[in-house]
């Protein structure tokens, strides 16, 4: 059975060692590097299954490292950073990260998120089902097998999680999904109070869909309840 290798990129050795300790207890192999440039080199030279990246690293920060990684690779990426504002999280998700945790962090929660991301990655790499249907609404086409989205003829660059959220909502137009329900179905784990992960992803997704310039709002907020697809 192939061992799973996780890249830890953090310039604070004590944090990298702590993460390694908990991940190795789960049976994962770990590769540690101190900066963004070495993170990219490690992914190019090793079979990395998931990357945990700090943002404020020397030589190349986590945002730019993620953009360069995403140009060639599709492995799950989790940001782990002391930068915890909504703007930081939005920037991280827009750059291509799949999840974002702030320091200080609970190591067991990080392990749970790693496990969830690896499960999702494994599911996405399975052969596609033959009955997946292209969804269309308001000039937008969603292609489940290719996991791509086009809007008025132009391909929209979205992250895997953004695609999962959009596909879920568009598959059940007019149905209202709570934040908790979206989190459970897309992330495949129990929702925890205080998480704004879903809201941040939807905010960036709306921006990429051009809801600030198009009159049609494809994702509608139902105040106090959740979100629905308005196609």
TrEMBL record:
Domain Response regulatory residues, every copy: 5-118
DNA-binding region extent: 132-231
GO MF assignments: phosphorelay response regulator activity; transcription cis-regulatory region binding
DNA-binding listed as a keyword: yes
Domain of life of the source: Bacteria
Major location (coarse): cytoplasm
GO CC entries: cytosol; protein-DNA complex
Domain OmpR/PhoB-type: 132-231
GO annotation terms (biological process): regulation of DNA-templated transcription
List of residues that carry 4-aspartylphosphate: 54
Keywords, ordered alphabetically: DNA-binding, Phosphoprotein, Transcription, Transcription regulation, Two-component regulatory system
Subcellular location per the Swiss-Prot or TrEMBL entry: Cytoplasm
Pfam family, one: Trans_reg_C
PROSITE patterns associated with the record: OMPR_PHOB, RESPONSE_REGULATORY
PANTHER family linked to this entry: REGULATOR OF RPOS, RESPONSE REGULATOR SAER
Protein name: DNA-binding response regulator
